[in-house]
Amino acid sequence: MKNNSIKTLVRENILQLQPYISFRDHNEFNAPVMLDANESPFGECNRYPDSTQKRLKSKLAGLKKVSPSQIAIGNGSDELIDLIVKIFCEPKKDAILMMNPSFAMYGFYAAINENKVSKLNLDENFEIVKDNFLKAAEDPSLKIFFLCSPNNPTGNSVDDIEFYLQNFNGIVVVDEAYIEFSGKKSSLELLGQYSNLIVLQTFSKAWGFAGARVGMAYASEEIITLINTVKAPYNVNVLSQELILKTLEEENKLQENVTHILEERTWLKLQFEGITCIKKVFSTDANFFLIRMENVDNVYAKMLGEEILTSRRDPAIPGCIRINVGNRAENEKLINLLKEI
Ligand SMILES: *Cc1c(COP(=O)(O)O)cnc(C)c1O
């Protein structure tokens, strides 16, 4: 970012907001008598969750080597994308920039907030053309660049993230939903250098907790305070907070899951080689493959007929289907069917 301070990027009404702070945020959470929140004294989940997610943040801070004040927790990273758009983009006035193709949710939340969505078309290898980026970035209405690395649905990582941080006059959100599969360095280590950086991570993919809806934003304390100000106080429920805290105690679990998925990814890639309806398997840093098929209509219909769900990307990405890495039984079923076609 060249000269903007973060404050000049924030919507005026958001700057004026006072965060909702419950009495409990300042006090001992488990008082012996809690008659302040109109809860029931009975039941197994009768208390509101900790709105500051203190224990979770403290655990994550240790794991990621950041301060708890640099972490915001959302109801999935989807919620954080929504909040980030709301904080920085004035409805009907400001715009976001996203790669094309990339994760549809950036455009979805921008549209809800009535913000224009500028799309930066990737080249035939799904890489960003830097000159095109520089040209697009000149638009003064742009407030946020959503940079997805590894990118969904293409699977490749974005190189030279610092170039975009330096040459975008706004917030750069690096969405690292698949970083655990990539072997690449996280942009978390750039947090100290770039005040306009937000890194998103999630428990939904490598960690295996898509159903719990827990995602993180890592950024400067200034940005995190803004996110905490606009979020719904009780956005992450008690059960999910407990579940994630428990899984964070099992230190080797993540690595075991990732290793297993990567082994299956290698196995699948090998199997794809002998299959005639496959024209091209794009290289991937994630837990899925983007695959160009011969006669994609037919292949997709046959898979659906056998109740194998995949994500059709055609016609936006011609001939392509995104298929994620499953367990061995699922992968074998897929391969056996593809061999038949
Ligand atoms: C799956 C995914 C997410 C995760 O969203 P959650 O709301 O945390 O489940 C975020 N970004 C991208 C690019 C994804 O593919």
Task: Fill in the keyword field for this structure.
single chain, 341 residues, alpha/beta, 7-stranded mixed beta sheet, 4-stranded antiparallel beta sheet, 16% strand
Pairing-aware structural class of the strands and helices?
alpha/beta
How many helices? The count is 12
Shape: globular
Bound ligands: pyridoxal-5'-phosphate
* Radius of gyration, taken over Cα atoms and rounded to an integer in Å: 22 Å
C-alpha termini separation:
51 Å
Largest sheet: 7 strands, mixed
Helix and strand run: HHHEHEHEHEHEEEHHHEEHEEH
> How much helix is in the residues?
25-40%
Multimeric state: single chain
**DSSP strand count:** 11
Strand neighbour order, sheet with most strands? 1-7-6-5-4-2-3
Mean pLDDT: 95
Low-confidence stretches: none
| Share of β-strand residues | 15-25%
GO molecular function: histidinol-phosphate transaminase activity
Keywords: Amino-acid biosynthesis, Aminotransferase, Histidine biosynthesis, Pyridoxal phosphate, Transferase
Protein name: Histidinol-phosphate aminotransferase
Catalytic activity: L-histidinol phosphate + 2-oxoglutarate = 3-(imidazol-4-yl)-2-oxopropyl phosphate + L-glutamate
Describe this structure in words.
With 341 residues, the chain is an alpha/beta fold. It contains 12 helices and 11 strands. The longest helix has 20 residues, at 253-272. The mean pLDDT is 95. Bound molecules: pyridoxal-5'-phosphate (PLP). Belongs to the class-II pyridoxal-phosphate-dependent aminotransferase family. Histidinol-phosphate aminotransferase subfamily. InterPro entries: Aminotrans_II_pyridoxalP_BS, Aminotransferase_I/II_large, HisP_aminotrans, PyrdxlP-dep_Trfase, PyrdxlP-dep_Trfase_major, PyrdxlP-dep_Trfase_small.
